């Protein structure tokens, strides 16, 4: 079994010579990460577009509760690179009717 844990943010920070920080990865897809932890900086990059619309507010409140000082959140607004097995846009919060 091959397990790929992305951690692109960690890699990017390390490539820039930054190392004086604690890194707490979390992604429910990777149970190896464990539970989310509170942090001074919470980054959520190109993830929120995959959250079902009915869960987006709950997700944002959860991110707020994990944030001690600052959150950096991005939402990819372009077309998805993938579609779900049922044919839906993988970017679930995009409104395809407008």
Provide a descriptive summary of the structure in words.
With 98 residues, this protein is an alpha+beta fold. It has a domain at 38-98. The protein has 2 helices and 2 strands; from the N terminus they run αβαβ. The protein has helices at residues 8-15, 56-66; strands at residues 39-44, 67-73. The chain has a two-stranded parallel ribbon with strand order 1-2. β1 (39-44), α2 (56-66) and β2 form a beta-alpha-beta unit. The longest helix has 11 residues, at 56-66. It is globular. The model has no long low-confidence stretch (mean pLDDT 86).
Overall pLDDT metric = 86
Instruction: Give the overall silhouette.
Output: globular
Individual helix count: 2
Task: For the record, give the distance between the C-alpha atoms at the N and C termini, rounded to a whole number.
Answer: 42 Å
Largest sheet: 2 strands, parallel
Main β-sheet, spatial strand arrangement: 1-2
Q: What is the SS-derived class?
A: alpha+beta
The low-confidence parts are none
Number of E-state strands: 2
How much of the sequence is in beta strands?
Answer: 5-15%
Q: Can you write the helix and strand succession as a string?
A: HEHE
The percentage helix is: 10-25%
Q: Evaluate the radius of gyration.
A: 15 Å
